């Protein structure tokens, strides 16, 4: 449910670190709470994002939620698949439902995030 | 709602069955209701458009009026011509205040020569009853009974709804015509079947004694109906172009600017809103309720601003606001309703929705967004 190799934020985003690059998506809990995802708004490639700042929006049939970036850096890639087929966020939140890739400007800030067990314990 | 908010939410007679089906529950207008079941809102919308869905609508207010003075009394309160409402027929109508503002929208059914059933919105029931009580007179022969807590109500909607209800009622349902109501007994259950709904689809709203609500729910479910919650109900009614009180109509809007003048009859004797409505009818409304489809990527939501998109205006100005909006699985784009300045309200006009700072193009379209038949 919450893979051990990922880091988690309290806003229910996950981060997969690969060298100096962070892949980011929303957790299983987030997609279940949202319900059917029907729209994802992502930033331009090349833009800079601060840790825990808003980087986009995700909408279900019912409501809109902000997306917050768990890390700091430059956006180097966005997932066009989730723009065309937002339902992959529901079906594969940790796989093809990823949202953005960020070139980390300060990798030490990853330490501010939770491991899987800690994150899961916050869900109650 | 302030007083209701202090109490714990009410539960419908089908509540436990929803929990057994792992429904996601939410508090809605003082009731704890299913918002969606496990397969999600889109699957539920598709079930109703393609097959049949069931909704627990037991939270809606059910009020019965009986007596030789019932027609006169309701005529004072409702915008419907009750004299023309024959036995077993229904009419959509408004409960308007003395200024012509919409206190609630309702369905009225003539269920006896001197007996009427009024079905109102859950969140407005308390307010409606207060308004009705304020209009009551001594000495008139009209008894009122609130049936909400004594009964359960299930809406069965979709192209296969009539077939499935017909099966359950051993052939009684299909004898009831569109927008008609009748009492039907089957397997020891005394039910009232109204061939009405809030999805645009054919189907029934079935009222049974409270203790038989869950049994009927399970019977319909086991006959192939898909369980549906408030989330899909809201999408379906918007696709069908039906207004939601509190969003699209309210005590600060009148039936004419909402485009529902055809549901207003002002000639009933002593109709309390009559003078105000006749006055409103004689002037062109400044704003009109319109339906629109998104052209650009984005989903309209209630409260967002609507801007003009006229080529001769260099700066877009605010011309209205969104009152309902969602993603429509049936039309496969963002759809919404909102009030706009009358001069921008023509079908085909392009407008702009301010989606939290992102300006997205939309087009005014004819309602409904989707018409099943």
Written account of the structure:
With 124 residues, chain A is of the alpha+beta class. Chain A has one domain: RNA polymerase II/Efflux pump adaptor protein, barrel-sandwich hybrid domain (OB fold (Dihydrolipoamide Acetyltransferase, E2P), Beta Barrel). Helices cover 19% and strands 35% of the residues of chain A. Chain A is built from four helices and nine strands. Chain A has helices at residues 28-34, 80-84, 88-91, 116-122, and strands at 7-8, 13-18, 21-26, 37-41, 48-49, 54-60, 64-68, 73-78, 100-104. A six-stranded antiparallel sheet of chain A has the order 1-2-3-9-8-5. In chain A, strands 4-6-7 form a three-stranded antiparallel sheet. The longest helix of chain A has 7 residues, at 28-34. The model of chain A has no long low-confidence stretch (mean pLDDT 96). With 373 residues, chain B is an alpha+beta fold. Among the domains of chain B are: 2-58 and 149-239, Gyrase A, domain 2; 286-365, Aminomethyltransferase beta-barrel domains (Elongation Factor Tu (Ef-tu), domain 3, Beta Barrel), CATH 2.40.30. In chain B, strand 18 (350-355) and strand 19 (358-365) form a beta hairpin. In chain B, helix 3 (41-50) crosses helix 8. Chain B is globular and about 70 Å long. Residues 1-5 of chain B have low confidence and may be disordered. Chains A and B meet through strand 4 and strand 6 of A and loops of B.
Topology-level CATH name of chain A = OB fold (Dihydrolipoamide Acetyltransferase, E2P)
* Helical content class of chain B: 10-25%
Rg over C-alpha atoms of chain B, rounded to the nearest angstrom:
21 Å
Largest sheet of chain A: 6 strands, antiparallel
Give the N-to-C terminal Cα separation of chain A: 14 Å
CATH class of chain A: Mainly Beta
């Amino acid at each position: 449910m919450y893979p051990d190799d990922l880091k988690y934020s309290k806003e229910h985003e996950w981060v997969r670190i690969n060298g100096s690059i962070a892949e980011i998506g929303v957790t299983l809990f987030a997609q279940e709470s949202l319900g059917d995802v029907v729209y994802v708004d992502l930033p331009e490639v090349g833009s800079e994002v601060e840790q825990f700042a808003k980087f986009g929006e995700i909408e279900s049939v019912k409501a809109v939620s902000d997306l917050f970036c768990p890390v700091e850096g430059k956006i180097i890639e966005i997932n066009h698949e989730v723009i065309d087929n937002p339902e992959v966020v529901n079906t594969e939140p940790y796989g093809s439902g990823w949202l953005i890739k960020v070139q980390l400007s300060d990798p030490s800030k990853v330490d501010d995030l939770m491991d899987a067990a800690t994150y899961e314990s916050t869900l109650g | 709602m302030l007083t209701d908010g202090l109490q714990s939410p009410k539960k419908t007679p089908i509540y436990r069955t929803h929990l057994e089906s792992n429904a996601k529950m939410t508090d809605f207008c003082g009731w704890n209701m299913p918002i969606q079941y496990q397969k999600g809102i889109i699957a539920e919308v598709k079930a109703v458009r393609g097959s049949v869905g069931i909704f627990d609508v037991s939270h809606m207010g059910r009020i019965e009026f009986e007596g030789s003075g019932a027609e006169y009394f309701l005529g004072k309160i409702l915008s419907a011509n009750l004299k023309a409402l024959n036995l077993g027929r229904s009419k959509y109508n408004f409960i308007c205040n003395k200024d012509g503002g919409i206190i609630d929208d309702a369905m009225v059914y003539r269920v006896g020569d001197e007996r009427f059933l009024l079905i109102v919105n859950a969140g407005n029931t308390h307010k409606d009853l207060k308004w009705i009580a304020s209009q009551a007179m001594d000495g008139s022969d009209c008894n009122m009974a609130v049936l909400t807590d004594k009964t359960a109500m299930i809406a069965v909607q979709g192209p296969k709804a009539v077939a499935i209800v017909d099966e359950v009622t051993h052939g009684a349902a299909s004898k009831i015509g569109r927008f008609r109501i009748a009492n039907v007994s089957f397997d020891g259950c005394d039910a009232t079947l109204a061939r009405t709904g809030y999805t645009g689809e054919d189907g029934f709203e079935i009222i049974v004694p409270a203790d038989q609500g869950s049994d009927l729910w399970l019977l319909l479910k086991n006959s192939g109906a898909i369980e549906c919650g408030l989330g899909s109900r809201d999408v379906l009614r918007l696709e069908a172009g039906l207004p939601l009180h509190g969003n699209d109509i309210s005590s600060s809007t009148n039936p004419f600017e909402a485009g529902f003048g055809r549901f207003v009859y002002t000639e009933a004797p002593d109709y309390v809103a009559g003078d105000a409505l006749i006055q409103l009818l004689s002037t062109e409304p400044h704003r009109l309720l319109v339906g629109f489809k998104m052209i650009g990527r984005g989903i309209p939501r209630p409260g967002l601003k609507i801007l003009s998109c006229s080529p001769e205006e260099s700066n877009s100005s605010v011309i209205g606001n969104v009152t309902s909006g969602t993603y429509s699985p049936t039309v496969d784009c963002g759809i919404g309703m909102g009030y706009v300045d009358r001069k921008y309200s023509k079908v085909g006009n392009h407008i702009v929705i301010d989606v939290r700072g992102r300006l997205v193009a939309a087009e005014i379209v004819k309602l409904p967004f989707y018409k099943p038949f």
